[in-house]
């Protein structure tokens, strides 16, 4: 039996997120308060492979999921008896990784007789804005920029954001990750590139404009990556001297495109409020540039703390309050999915 989560859920929700390489659990209150949020990253485990290895991710989630949930319960000083519902990421993501979280959520819900709320990971990123203390109320235009997705959204209702556009190829975070690797930085991806770019001159290596002058809300990042590869090859042994400038220039090209599309979204929707979510929203240069753009336009910018930009379970709990809750046996047949309907 499906019912409205807004009506039926009690005050505390246990949320689980295992869509990629972070094992996450959180306890979230009905009022948007975060009682505890634990995130165990597997980044080191995958570093030597140059990317996330799905099979390794699933196995590690299996090892971590129970200790991570126990840590979240312990930190929030509640027991499973205090939990009113279980929320879990159903997709999109790596199927094997998602199934670990989904199976755990089903077992917990079944064992305790609790409702289960399956959550779309992308709706989760947007729902992070509902959490305290920000508690952003719609309507607003929203940029979602993560490692797997880049979308421009109009949000009048947290349960049903409208997709205005999205990337035609790589996601913004993917561009940061590939850029970091081409620049010989660690596998910490965008965060590592941002760190190096801080000392660089963003004007030294101009990148070709992407989709400039084209109407619509789509984005494209694969051309930037190719242009960076060419630059790196041209520089050869001169890369270490130019690395900071090249990182800053590459970052500026990604940020420039994201800001342009965010401004276009404000223009097209007439919204006075802009929000940015997803791992790339942690980027300082992007936050600064969006702040400047909003100031120019008299719009308000809503930013999340970096821990709520990257994958986390608190956002899944926040989304659960706007999603239908399922009771047993309906949720037992739920399957994970690789692609979100919101991704277009
Ligand atoms: O939302 P997220 O944690 O996972 C996905 O749903 O994909 O986003 C991860 C992405 C990675 O590509 C990572 O390089 C990027 O977010 N990222 C950053 C920064 N921190 C994380 N990109 C640029 N600057 C950062 N500071
Ligand atoms: Zn994500």
Rg result: 20 Å
Q: How much helicity do the residues have?
A: 40-55%
Name the strands of the widest sheet in spatial order. 4-3-2-5-6
Provide the CATH architecture of the largest domain.
2-Layer Sandwich
CATH superfamily of the largest domain: ATPase, nucleotide binding domain
**CATH fold annotation of the largest domain:** Nucleotidyltransferase, domain 5
Largest sheet, in brief, is:
5 strands, mixed
Q: How many alpha or pi helices?
A: 12
Q: What is the C-level CATH assignment of the largest domain?
A: Alpha Beta
Order of helices and strands: EHEEEHHEHEHEEEHHHHEHEHHE
Tally of DSSP β-strands: 12
The shape is: globular
Low-confidence regions:
1-8
Task: Give the class from helix and strand content and strand pairing.
Answer: alpha/beta
Distance between the termini: 28 Å
Strand fraction equals: 15-25%
Named once each, the bound ligands are:
5'-O-[(R)-(carboxyoxy)(hydroxy)phosphoryl]adenosine, zinc ion
State mean pLDDT (0 to 100 scale). 94
* Count of discrete domains: 2
